[in-house]
Amino acid sequence: MDWQADLLPAALLGGAFVLLLVIAEAWTVLASPAPERPRKLVHLVGGLICLSFPWLLRSPWTVGVLAIGLTVLFVASRSLGMLRCLHGVERKSRGVEYYPAMVFTLFWLAHERPWLYAASLLALAVADALAALVGKRYGRILYEVDDEKRSLEGSLTFFLAALVAIGLPLVLSNEATLPSFYDRLPIAVVTAILVTLFEAISRHGRDNLWVPLGTYMVLSRLTGAAENEAYYQVLSLSSACLIVGVLGMFSRALNVGATLTLMLAVYGCWALASFDWALPLLSAVVVSSLVCIWLPPTWPLRARAMLHMVLPVVLVAAAGDLCAIADRTYAYDLLYAAFVGGCLMVLVQNLWHGEIRRRRTGGVPMAVWCAGISLLATGAIAVPLWIREIGMTLQFAVLLLAIAAIACIWHDRLFMGYAPHTQRPALVARRHLSIALAMAACAAMQASGLIPLLSPR
């Protein structure tokens, strides 16, 4: 049985982890280094130990037992005030507890493809450790992601290290199903850029989840795509970053974290499905940014608030991609209608929570603001789809107008008095509910036959 053959290697690996923790703790107690250094030593060396798993261990459950044991040790040591080498940092972080779980997940998903496991793990173990050390020591150009600070120097180091960590296993692999050597290079570049964005917007140690998982998902998709698909991905990612970055900088409607989140969302819709799926969200970004240039917002929207807005529409785009793969055309079209309704709500929320929301209190009747926002949001979403000849009809435009008007009233009643970045659970639930209802209304009207189906390409 696999687990019996794993007993000796698992015992040796467990002993190696314990020895590493003893060395790091002794360094912390005896030499009092900067808190990040012993933590990143454990991060880096522990990752290199985990790198050997596909060649030493056979069963994912063996890795699962090791992961559970380490997680219990890390949680207990935090509660008891032990292992200062891991828990001595001032910033709030749960990354230590996430690390074993993610190693188990990667092994379960990719242990039969060692190069993919190695690339995903190295992006976390090497790139993240180097970025933290360089950022702490040499970081001068700082930017904020909500309550945490990042440095441009650290992010650039992460990108370069991730490019090497991802590119080497990919280029050196002899797996027969992989694309040609010249297609592997842009795949490595796109993946490194994306995981750098993941790392930049991840807070409280969640990069230990999103960086390796994002690396695995992106590499799995791109290495199995059609020939020359990687070059298309480079073009779409560059376009999304350029458009959103420039608009975010000039509109001052978004902080850096929210801008990076929006870049990932636009690219995600484009890459998962097609440009037709990215177009409504991209149009919402352009229009809300132009409005905020005209009416500068009091507060820039923060990363967490932006994530709550765009996550539902990105998930719908991912579901549409699955329907396309399964050749479910009818479900694909219904999901696109729901996606359009979700993008409309993203635009309405951005407009209402910007400077318009503050000016609403200046004596202008609510009906005037409601009509203006509704017409602007409807036109911003409907006109590009009509130009693309996707099937936008007058009936669907009227439905979008009605949804936008109801959304304005909803926001006026439930969100006035709160800053745009307020993230109380009740308010977040209301935002998600309003987006879900708009999506359901668009899909239901098309499913009933009252509105012709949209036909995205």
List keywords for this structure.
globular, 457 residues, Dgk1-like, two-stranded antiparallel sheet, Cytidylyltransferase family protein, 2 domains, mainly alpha, transferase
Task: Write structural notes for this entry.
It is a single chain. This protein has 457 residues and is mainly alpha-helical. The chain is built from 20 helices and two strands. The model has no long low-confidence stretch (mean pLDDT 80). The chain crosses the membrane at residues 6-29, 63-83, 95-111, 117-135, 156-172, 184-201, 230-247, 279-297, 309-328, 334-352, 364-387, 393-412, 433-454. It comes from Aeoliella mucimassa. One of its GO terms (molecular function) is ATP-dependent diacylglycerol kinase activity. Keywords: Membrane, Nucleotidyltransferase, Transferase, Transmembrane, Transmembrane helix.
